[in-house]
Design a protein that fits this description.
Blueprint (H helix, E strand, L loop, with lengths): L2 H24 L2 H28 L1
Length: about 55
């Protein structure tokens, strides 16, 4: 997994956390859900890349 992928996934995770926090502050449940979805997507990408890396070695 390249460092670029890690940076992109981390940025997506942080974006999701910001969306979730903003949604909680404003009472916007759809933003909270979007934020959690963004975080889950970033986690899934990281897990998939970790599996790929495991098979390379």
């Amino acid at each position: 997994m390249g460092i670029d992928d890690r940076v992109e996934n981390t940025a997506e995770d942080l974006k999701g956390k910001a969306k979730e926090a903003h949604g909680k502050m404003t009472g916007d449940d759809s933003k909270v859900a979007e934020g959690k979805a963004d975080q889950a997507k970033a986690d899934l990408k990281n897990a998939a890349e970790d599996v790929k890396d495991a098979f390379k070695h």
